[in-house]
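Fill-in record for APC family permease.
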Amino acid sequence: MKNAPDASGKGTISLAGGVAMGTGVMIGAGIFALTGQIAELAGPLFPLSFVLGALVTSLAAYSYIKMSNAWPSSGGIAMILQKAYGPGVVAASASLLMALSMVINESLVARTFATYALRPFGLEENSLLLSALALGLIVFAYIVNKAGNRSVSGFSLVMSAIKIGGIALFALAAIAASGFFSGAFAQQVSQTNGGAFLASVAFSILAFKGFTTITNSGGEIVDPHRNVGRTIMISIAICVVTYLLVAVAVGSNLTIDQIVEARDYSLAAAARPALGELGFWFTIVIAIAATTSGVIASVFAVSRMLTMLTEMKMIPHSHFGMKGGIRSHMLVYTVVIAGTLAVLFDLSRIASLGAFFYLVMDILVHWGVYRHLREEIGARTSVLLAAIAADGVILVAFAGVKLESDSVIVGIAAVSIVAVFGLETLFLQRKPSPNGIPQRDARVDGSSKSHESGADQQ
């Protein structure tokens, strides 16, 4: 699987390669860390949270698929936002929020790797070792990415097949050993709070958001008008089946209290009573393999997106004396930010921050397509409005629950989002336009063609 069009300009990522890329990014922390976080909020109904998350993600994917079908491009989300809002503050800020949510995902997966690696030694609560191992994995991902695109794609393809097969094998064996009506599923469903259940879907959506990696590579997929949408939906379908299998396996072997107690390593905790020591170690190995490949793929995707945003003059850039091109600089920035987050925040806060950033960005994408592009790309108004409503309800429910349990992370998320928009406003106001005059935010007049030309100038 190559990562650029061939000499003839045709895409070089096959349908199967695109699916492997999408599922490779999605299946990582979504299973190994977020299962416990989701169960803590949703109670015995937590497998249904994954189903609702898949439905909301499928609604969200509609905008990305319609845009990619109309304009297959490796610009991905930044391209969508520029065509919707013009090359101004909204497009730049929302694109940066997406990039930051991807960096946050790297930190989440790296912390998950460290938690599972330390679990056999009973050291998963040691914050110093957790931070050190997470940072070590991020540095390793940098080294692999620095080695070149072929190293990344080859490694990711192999690891995707191993981890999906391994996770499915674990889940089926655990379900066969314990059945469907024990553990959490023997508890009363009435214990579940409706608002908390809706809030849990924010984490479920985070487990599926890796499909945007496919959008960002739309121009490189073979026959993109036909295959981008198919790749996204197949990837989501594979992931929801995998997530459901794991959720049922965990829920049938552990009570909700046990899942919450072991929320950062719930699969390993469920493996021991169901499958014994062999199952426990099998789960540990699969978790380490899955999270390692997930971080490597994520570092590749983020550095690529940040490079694109820099080349489009949507974010500032400084080489700080480093040699090499923009891509090599962005690799360094990516691992520095991800490493800092992995050291400073625990899994729950990292996941919460990523959910806030992603949901805000997603709403802006759908609103932009609905307001300015729906007629041009033939998108259905009802689907776009349903996607906005679903994201909005879940964002409000998630913020409400977090205000009660961890108001600090809500404040950090709010301040960070405001800072992104504020700093982008300052940067774009000072950025010279082609005629030498500082560029102001492009005002959208409802005609996509009017600011489409502005985006092309970038």
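KEY FINDING: The radius of gyration is 21 Å.
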